[in-house]
Amino acid sequence: MRYLIRYSMNRTHNLKNTSQLAHQEVSRKIAIHEAGHAAAIYLGNQQKGLPPVFFQIFIKPLINDVQSSAFLGNPSDHYIAKVEGGRLIHTLPSSLDEATKEFSTAQKHAYQHAFEADIINLLAGPLAEARYVALRDNEPINSELVNVNALQYYGGSSDLEIVNEYLECFIDSDELRERKMTELFLAAFNFVSERPNWLAITALADFILANEENIIECNEIIDVIDSGVRRMATSQSIASFG
After folding, report:
1. Which residues, in sequence order, are CB contacts of 102 under 8 Å at separation 6+?
2. DSSP run (H or E) holding 204
3. According to the 3-state scheme, what is the secondary structure of 112-178?
4. What is the rounded distance in angstroms from the CA atom of residue 71 to the CA atom of residue 75?
5. What domains, with CATH codes, occur in the chain?
6. Of the ranges 6-10, 61-65, 120-124, which one carries the lowest mean pLDDT score?
7. Minimum mean pLDDT range among 4-18, 147-161, 173-187
8. What CA–CA distances, in Å, run from 235 to 85, 199, 228?
9. Which residue from 47, 58, 55 is spatially nearest to 86, judged by alpha carbons?
């Protein structure tokens, strides 16, 4: 098994002087996290009627001394896993008003919808990880126990930084930004909590951990997610006849 690492200060610190079992658990959490992003990008956008967008999952080996010195065991066993691409808004404008000043009302609405979808998809990663940890520990989870600020404890620091960049060019008022963050956080929470979506996330996480390639292509990701959704539909169909 390859050990997956999200290369950030808190992840690195948590991995020092830990056992193989702990490495495996961190790998599982990271796989769930990235699968949460990917499922939201594909399924979430699809459910909102948004256009498909290209993305991949890169699994890169840690190869330099600075990276490898932080981890136990053979450095070649450790990998960084990360979703690349997948955003509907490729470049953030200085402000939403500036970006849409020449747009029709319908175009402005579509652009804002894409903006919000990107934020939800970013939040889905740490929320998926939080859900996994709660289920693993047989603990309750709801949007009050796990709030926006708690996402930093689930590998969400960099996700929150990007979300805040979106919101800063989206809304001027601090109060309105906070309201919008709460709204989109709840949307992301509901997405990962829905059983078909969760089964798709866990199916993709299993695939990430078992995969031997360093790039999981977009079509492979979609196939795995669709397979997870189909399994849910099949089980529901069987249950209805039970």
Report:
1. none
2. helix 195-210
3. HHHHHHHHHHHHHHHHHHHHHHHHHCCCCCCCCCCCHHHHHHHCCHHHHHHHHHHHHHHCCCHHHHH
4. 7
5. 3-240 (1.20.58.760)
6. 6-10
7. 4-18
8. 32, 11, 11
9. 55
